[in-house]
Amino acid sequence: MNFGAVAAMLYSFQDTSSVTQSVPAPVALNPSDNIWLWIALGVGVLALIAAFILARIVLAGDTGTPEMRNISDAIREGAEAFLSRQYRTIGIMAVVLAIAVFCGYYFSPRTQDVAL
């Protein structure tokens, strides 16, 4: 469950008139935090190397008999047609939603200045 939305809602109900505005202190990183960053970066690099090696192995393999290639070409053609249709549909939906969000911001007097 995401508690961020609940926390934001509860924070918005607080009376901030008596709270002084202060700048939060910068967070100091412990030396142990640095090691986790390097571990994550190292694992990411190793994963990219493994993906590259596996891709090379798969692409170097035999493509199969002519019948297998005919079937794979038909599957590829169908998949490309499907993805083309999906991308077109998602693109249309994205444009319509972008226009709706823009209109919602533009016609609200509170958010009109940030609409553009």
Q: Estimate the strand proportion.
A: under 5%
- Globally, the shape reads flat
Distance between the termini: 33 Å
Mean pLDDT over the residues: 85
Structural class, by secondary structure, is mainly alpha
CA radius of gyration is 26 Å
Which spans have pLDDT < 50 for at least 5 consecutive residues?
none
- Tell how many strands the DSSP assignment holds: 0
Order of helices and strands: HHH
How much helix is in the residues?
Answer: 55-70%
Summarize, please.
The chain has 116 residues and is mostly helical. It contains 3 helices and no strands.
Supply database-style keywords:
single chain, 116 residues, mainly alpha, flat
Molecular structure report:
This protein is mostly helical. 69% of the residues lie in helices and 0% in strands. The protein is built from three helices and no strands. The chain has helices at 4-12, 31-60, 66-106. It starts with a helix and ends in a 10-residue tail after the last helix. The model has no long low-confidence stretch (mean pLDDT 85).
Write the layout of secondary structure elements.
Elements: H1 4-12, H2 31-60, H3 66-106
